[in-house]
Amino acid sequence: MSIPTPANFTNKHSSLFSLPVDSFNDLLTNNIANRTELTSTINQHLKDGIDYTSLVFKRGTTKKFLTKAGADKLATICGLTGQFEITTEQDFVISKATILFNGSQVGEGIGARSFSQDLMWSNKNQVNDVNKTCKMSKKSAWVDGIINALGLSDEFSQDAESVESSEVQAVRKVKPNVNTNTKTRQPSDIITKPEAKGIMDKVNMYLNHTEKTDLTEWMSHSGFKDFYELTVKAAEVINKRFMAKELNHG
C-alpha cells in the first residue's frame, strides 16, 4: 500500500522526479501493475448491492457508493487496519480514521454526523440516539479512509444517503429469492405481527435512505405490500441481505 522506495533512493533525491529515469520507470511499472491487480480484485470480489450501491442519476450518470461492508472487505483483502479519534463539536460528532498498513499510516478519512439526524422515541419523547450518531460518523470516516488509502476516488463515492432522492432515476435492483406467488402462501408461512414490527424498527434504526429504497423495491418485486405480509423465508432474506452488515458491524 505504501510506495516502495527504490534501492538507490537517497536523501539527495528531494522528490520522485529527481530519481534516475530507470528507477522512476521501475517505480511506475510496479505501481501500475498493483493498481491493475487491485481493480481486477474489486471487479471479482465486490458485489453490487452489498459492498457498494449503484445509483443512476437523472442527468444520465451512474455512481457507485462504497458501503461499510465493501470497505471492510477491501481492508481485509489489502491488510489494512484503522485507528479512530472521535470528538464532538456543537451538534456534530466528528470521526477521524487513520488507515494503517503494517503499522504505517497510508491514508485517513473524516466523517461527521449531526445528533439531530438520529432521533428515537423514549417514554413518548424524542431523544438523540447518541450511539447511532457515533457509529454512523465512524462508519463515514472508515469508508472515506479506505477510499483515500487505496486511491479509489475514481471508482467509488461515499455516503449514498446524503444524495437527494430527486436527483436519482434508479437504484440497483435486487433479485428476489423467495416465493413471490401469493396464491401459494399458507397462513403458517406469514410472520407474526410482533415479528413484523421488530423488522420495521430495525429498518428505521439501521438502514439509510438508499438501503430503505432497495428494501422497498425488493419487497414490491417479491409481491409484499408491507411488512405484515412477509413470509418467514422473506424475513430471513431481509435479515441476512439487508440487515446483517449493520447489526454485525454497526
Keyword list:
alpha+beta; 3 domains; disordered N terminus; 250 residues; three-stranded antiparallel β-sheet; globular; 6 helices
Description:
The chain is globular. It contains 6 helices and 8 strands; from the N terminus they run H-E-E-H-E-E-E-E-E-H-E-H-H-H. The two termini are 26 Å apart. Helix 2 crosses helix 3 and helix 4 packs parallel to helix 6. Helices cover 40% and strands 22% of the residues. It has 250 residues and is an alpha+beta fold. The chain folds into 3 domains: 45 residues, no CATH class; 121 residues, no CATH class; 76 residues, no CATH class. The strands form 3 sheets. A 3-stranded antiparallel sheet has the order 2-1-8. Strands 3-4-5 form a 3-stranded antiparallel sheet.
User: What is the approximate shape?
Assistant: globular
**What is the CA–CA distance across the termini?**
26 Å
Helix content, binned percent:
40-55%
**Count of domain modules:** 3
Helix/strand order: HEEHEEEEEHEHHH
Low-confidence stretches: 1-7, 173-177
Percent strand equals 15-25%
The SS-based structural class is: alpha+beta
Query: What's the mean pLDDT score?
Result: 80
**What is the spatial order of strands in the main beta sheet?**
2-1-8
Provide the gyration radius in Å: 22 Å
Number of strands: 8
Largest sheet composition: 3 strands, antiparallel
Helical segment count: 6
Quickly describe the structure:
The chain is α+β, with helices and mostly antiparallel strands and 250 residues long.
